[in-house]
Amino acid sequence: MPVYEYEHLGEPCRSGRIFEQRQSLAEKALSRCPHCRGVVRKVISRTHVNTPKTDSELRDLGFTKLVRRDEGVYENVTARSRDSRYMIRGKPETIPDIKKTISD
After folding, report:
1. How far apart are CA 13 and CA 15, in angstroms?
2. Among 21, 34, 63, 71, which residue's CB has the most CB atoms within a 10 Å radius?
3. Backbone conformation region of residue 72, classed left if phi is above 0, alpha if psi is from -120 to 50, else beta
4. Phi and psi dihedrals of 57, rounded to 5?
5. DSSP state of 47
6. CA atoms of 30 and 74, how far apart (whole Å)
7. Which run of H or E residues covers position 59?
8. What is the mean pLDDT of the chain?
9. What is the DSSP string of 11-24?
10. pLDDT in tens, 89-99
11. Helix or strand (DSSP H, E) at 55
């Protein structure tokens, strides 16, 4: 069940100015504090998304990262030993072979 944050619009109670409430997705947002019955509003919470930071982390996760180097030329900075380092427009043999990268 997701956890939502709510903020008291008046004086906070023992739950604090901002408090968390566990609710199902089907439930409506609270309009009153479950402790003091004061008026509350739902707060948009910060989320944490962990993304790979280096090219080698991307490669290890199976991603391919292409960086534009010139008109029609892209460098494959996550190239594996069997991949071409550069992808050149009009040369299909330089396109990374995804079938070799993706496995079950």
Report:
1. 5
2. 21
3. left
4. -65, -40
5. -
6. 51
7. helix 55-60
8. 87
9. S-BTTBSEEEEE--
10. 999 888 877 77
11. helix 55-60
Q: Is 31 exposed, middle or buried (0-12, 13-18, 19+ CB in 10 A)?
A: exposed
Q: What is the pTM of this model?
A: 0.46
From CA 49, how far away is CA 27, in angstroms rounded? 25
Backbone angles phi, psi at 98, to 5 degrees: -65, -30
pLDDT digits (tens, 9 = 90+) for 31-50: 999 999 999 999 988 777 78
Handedness of CA 80, 82, 88, 90 (dihedral sign): negative
Closest CA to 63 of 44, 92, 83: 83
* Whole-number pLDDT of residue 21: 92
Q: How far is CA 73 from CA 43, 45, 63, in A?
A: 46, 42, 19
Backbone angles phi, psi at 59, to 5 degrees: -60, -45
